[in-house]
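Feature request, filed as a ticket because there's no other form

It would be nice if the structure record came with a short human-readable summary line next to the tokens. Right now we just get the raw output. Example of a typical job, pasted below so the devs can see what we mean:
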Amino acid sequence: MGGYKLSRKEIAMENAVGILVSLAFVFLAIGLSTLLTKFNILKDEGSRKFIHIVVSNWWIIAIIFFRNPIYASIVPLLFIIVNYISYKKQVFKAMERDGGLKDLGTVYYAISLFILSLITFNGDKTPYIGLMGILAMGYGDGFAAVVGVRYGKHEFKILGYKKSLEGTLTMFLICSALAYVIMMVLGINNSFGISVILGLVATAAELLTPMGFDNITVPLITSGVFYYLTKGLTIWW
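Raw output as currently delivered:
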């Protein structure tokens, strides 16, 4: 665009469109999960993890549309409220656990999105700090649970909660791969070592945080360590 700067009106319109697209995307994910559950393609925890994984891609929409932390945080703030109401009233059954396993994981998920939106949307590239943590939570934790439930043969307990070696390894590999891809996009060379460290950090945060709190610890800690390990580089300024 040759350095063309948007007017205030154009910026406001871009942000408004971003909010509408964001809401449509999240509700589409919930609706699709509900439909797949209705036709027995997904069941119970599978429907939750489908939403868990798909909604993490909202951050990419946010990068496209938002240039301001206030606008970027509006949608997560709305879903803190929506998810809490759903948790209490079982409004969106596809994303809620049944029985005695209920926790506030969906609310914590939205809280993480909200916090990282406020912190990282302050530059052209800084949202990628948040992207690292959110995708670690969405894809890493999401697929770790799916693999653990379906293929987990080697189980162990940590802090009284059952985990599987297969799920834990999946978390590490996916988070490491995501970190490597994000750093390649940002032009960070020699990033394999950092990728492995981030994979280990995200996996440790997931293992050591029960009761849905991993939806806060995984993204915040992973994003924080990502920034700390790369803060000497010029990409953030």
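Something like this underneath would help us a lot:
The longest helix spans residues 8-38.
The chain has a mean pLDDT of 90.
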